């Protein structure tokens, strides 16, 4: 006779019913709920299947003992040998710490030395949420007693817990009722996992469904950061009839409170008492939702960037701002839809990351911490000869030439001093620079290099940017349904640099959106019932082509630039980079490019270029100074400004730019930036002269380049350009005095003019004149 288990219909039904029973049992076991399961009318399992099922289930009790053993016995590998996690528990007990950070690198190191623990770190990473609660329970078991100090006082939560502990067993009609306090309510810390050595940093796109429940680390850009709100973790429900209190732990995003009082007093009466939420005895934690988008360099060709929702709880809140590039370590979890939305989405669930650790890839200048060795290296660079020129040449050394342009970009990185007057008026200190030139002169490469060099920067293009994309847009919050503001590129680059490429391709209506940002450094919004002002304290670096694609010599500079005067006057420096044909310069450029392609590095500059990290640290230290303009230089700057205005009046229609009162502020900002590079607290006359020279070079670059332009330069500028062109052609950074005199005489100037040039300007140039 055939066994009933072996029959095809009955065997199929039995296997399906067994799988349903096993899945339900595993789910309830994972959630630590005490539920007695029935057999659903299915015969008892055979012994071999029962043993197989027990072998598949993890032994959480043994894992808890492993966690306790790790927390109690792990010691640092240094000479001190201190118990790292025992010290953390002491600080938590004494109210000095609110987080227990488990470093998985420590767990990997610890498990390698003990037999049977080799796979434990991988198990923790594959089921991180469950083991976070196991570590919390283990910490509760070995938590030391609190050591009270002289000035220590109990807070309201301690008083409330003491009152609950003093409540004895209530005896009501021979029914003992004891309100039990859940461990989560007593716990004053959260468990966080820090990534170990075996967790690779991934992209947002590489996180798949197989990673659900696992601990993952990925890199992204914060695009939207929500407000910090209280999240209910343990609800306290009080009966309005008998006063009985019951505590209900909230698991997940949904909460269905108990509606009937379970006490013995109310169970014997009809109707039973109604339960209501008591917020004073409930436990809330800080909650914040962050939207993280993958970086532009991680997006494949032809795809759009993907984003993930990150839930931040506890002490990790307020650690990210819009525009930050961060490495986030968290647990990848599903979020099933509920309510009416579940009828639309069906079985499709959203996903999110529960953050465990946040690491910033780029920090602001104020957040850069420098050791004694770093300061020694900075002093070494500071005391070198021609420090100003070497810093400028270290910016994109693979790009040939553009010495003055790189100096202008160096001043943009350093910036001036922001002044806030007593009446609330704010005078910006950020330097705005616009690079306009022919195609193929490395404008976009300079912008890209500045983006990587600045600690906080945003890169965008004119054609792909709209007005709201640059300033701010109105979005609907997915959690609350309220209308919120989402910052654009200029808001994301707050206290940083916003690089806008193809600036001339922008629509005029979109380009006018940045007028307020460039001067007032704010974004005013009055949309959808929201009226506010956002900070956009950013330096703008724009790159554009002339109106005709290439600079047309026959047209006037105003026709070539084709930008409104209201926008041009807001740029501190306006450079026109022309692609002028010349046999010597073309040969030198070709040799430079060929050397870069062959060797993978730029040719020798006569010195070792300063690394990007050291250059960033140098600028960070320079920005700590707040130089001021002395009174004795006031008349000198005023007369120089008046002379520039008079030259523009004399030029008439041939004027090469727009000189307004903003030009005077530009002189002050550039002078302060030069003083910062010298680590000085006072602006010198040499700083003002160099600022005037850069402004003059930016004006001269707009002139017609047809024929011999030597007559359009003043003698000092003409000598400088002649010596610079000769040094770039060699290449070298040292010019002997006799060689400089020969070059000056060949240009039609006297030796006296050359001597004045060396005495007044040689300290700022990248050329060293050896007498």
Name the features.
single chain; 771 residues; alpha/beta; 5-stranded mixed β-barrel; 5-stranded parallel β-sheet; elongated; disordered N terminus
What is the tally of beta strands? 26
Helix content: 25-40%
Number of separate helices: 29
Share in β-strands: 15-25%
- How far is the N terminus from the C terminus? 115 Å
Shape: elongated
The poorly predicted ranges are 1-42, 168-178, 704-712, 764-771
Strand order of the largest sheet: 6-10-11-13-12
Structural class: alpha/beta
Largest sheet geometry: 5 strands, mixed, barrel
Radius of gyration: 35 Å
Mean of pLDDT: 79
List the helices and strands and how they pair.
Elements: H1 8-30, H2 47-56, H3 60-73, H4 84-93, E1 99-103, H5 104-112, H6 120-126, H7 128-141, H8 156-166, E2 170-172, E3 175-177, H9 183-186, E4 190-194, E5 201-203, E6 215-225, E7 229-239, E8 245-249, H10 264-267, E9 275-277, E10 283-293, E11 307-313, E12 325-335, H11 340-345, E13 350-360, H12 372-382, H13 387-393, H14 403-414, E14 419-420, E15 426-427, E16 433-437, H15 443-453, E17 457-461, H16 467-470, E18 472-476, E19 483-487, H17 489-492, E20 497-501, H18 508-511, H19 515-519, E21 522-527, E22 530-535, E23 539-544, H20 557-561, H21 565-568, E24 573-577, H22 583-599, H23 612-622, H24 634-651, H25 661-677, H26 685-700, H27 715-729, E25 734-736, H28 737-746, H29 751-761, E26 768-770
Parallel strand pairs: 1-4, 5-6, 11-13, 16-23, 16-24, 17-20, 20-23, 25-26
Antiparallel strand pairs: 2-3, 6-10, 6-12, 7-8, 7-9, 7-10, 10-11, 12-13, 14-15, 18-19, 21-22
Helix pairs in contact: 3-7, 6-7, 13-14, 25-26, 27-29
